[in-house]
Amino acid sequence: MEASKKQVRKPNLFLLWVVLGIGVGIVVGYFINDYGVGTGIGIATGVILGVIIKR
Predict the structure, then answer these.
(1) How far is the C-alpha of 35 from the C-alpha of 26, rounded, in Å?
(2) Residue 4 domain-assigned?
(3) 11, 35, 36, 42: least CB-packed within 10 angstroms?
């Protein structure tokens, strides 16, 4: 429970950015015709954005 105190600040915003990143990744995957790479890029982008905005 102690570790979760820091993470409870803005979990909804963090998840929103991750979901947006995944959405972008799916769109990118559609255009480059490779959903695996697109989704990977999207998840990475979403997590990075989420971490930056979380600070």
Answers:
(1) 6
(2) no
(3) 36
